[in-house]
Each structure stands twice: as structure tokens, then as C-alpha cells.
Design a protein that fits this description.
two-stranded antiparallel sheet, 4-stranded antiparallel sheet, 171 residues, 6 strands, alpha+beta, single chain, globular, 4 helices
């Protein structure tokens, strides 16, 4: 009982530290520069030129109307077997959203995290992280469930949920 409580306390401290670091290391918003290039010396707003979109590994051009938003903190899911924590799964997620929706994602991140955690806990409780948990079928089921719940929070602005990292540590 004490070991479960200790693990949960350490996980909460880790999540808190990660949240603080994520907020401190978040990139600054795009800078707007005022240039005296208008008629009669008036100031004109200009934006920095974005780098060209990289091509993905399939050789197709990335969709210029989409952007990827990495959620600040990892998701930690305990796997409980016979009344004790048998292992922990740690995931990192990124969201593919319509261009310009990064701030919307960050504004709704607490609701997204709560919804994603519910899906991850349900997946864990149904045995989704047991055995060979990285099979195509299990990962596809998890990804589809995350995307479905993400669309309930973000609407049509969300186009995909990407599982960037996944690790299971057994005790």
C-alpha cells in the first residue's frame, strides 16, 4: 500500500515539474515587426518569413495547411495487476491541427489531457498495454480512440493524434 502511494506521489511530482518546465520552455509567439514601408512614411506590419515545409519520409510534401503541436508533458499510465502497480507506461503525444490553431490547443490542453488520460486508463484496464502492446492492431485502436476524444474537445481543427514516444517500465 505504501509503495503504491509513493509511486503516485512521485508521479504527481514528476508531472508538476514537467508542467512547470513545459511552461517555462514554451517557444515565444511569432514576432510582428513594424516597417516604415507604407505610403507617406506610415508603419506597415510585416511577419517573419516561415521556413519552407519539409518533405515527409514518403517523399510527399507536407500539408502547408497543417501544423503539429506537441503536448507539453508526457502521459503516465499505471498498469494495475492483482491490486498493485505492475508497470508504468509513459507516452508523448503530438496533435496535427489546422494551421494557426496552436494557441487553441494550448488553451484547451487541460481538457485534452483529462480526456486523453481517460482513454489511456480505459485502454490500460482493458489489457491494451499488456503483452506485446505495440502491435499494429492495439496501437491503431489506441490512436483512433485518442483522435475521437480529441475531436470532441477541439472539433474539426484536429486532424490526427500522433503517438510520438511510448515506453513501458515493468516493476
Amino acid at each position: 500500500m505504501k509503495s503504491i502511494l509513493l509511486i503516485l506521489i512521485l508521479a504527481a511530482i514528476g508531472i508538476g515539474a514537467g508542467a512547470g518546465a513545459g511552461m517555462m520552455l514554451r517557444p515565444p509567439p511569432d514576432e510582428v515587426v513594424m516597417n516604415p514601408c507604407g505610403e507617406e512614411g506610415e508603419m506597415v506590419e510585416s511577419h517573419p518569413v516561415a521556413a519552407p515545409e519539409p518533405k515527409d519520409t514518403t517523399g510527399e510534401e507536407a500539408d502547408p495547411n497543417k501544423e503539429y503541436v506537441k503536448l507539453n508533458n508526457q502521459f503516465i499510465v499505471p498498469i494495475v495487476e492483482e491490486g498493485r502497480v505492475a508497470s508504468m507506461v509513459v507516452l508523448s503525444l503530438s496533435l496535427e491541427v489546422e494551421l494557426g490553431q496552436r494557441e487553441t490547443v494550448y488553451a484547451r490542453e487541460p481538457k485534452l489531457r483529462d480526456s486523453f488520460l481517460q482513454v489511456l486508463f480505459d485502454h490500460a484496464n482493458s489489457g491494451g498495454f499488456s503483452g506485446n502492446f505495440t502491435t499494429g492492431t492495439k496501437m491503431r485502436h489506441l490512436s483512433e480512440a485518442l483522435e475521437e476524444i480529441g475531436r470532441k474537445v477541439l472539433g474539426a481543427t484536429l486532424t490526427d493524434v500522433l503517438i510520438i514516444d511510448i515506453v513501458r517500465q515493468d516493476n
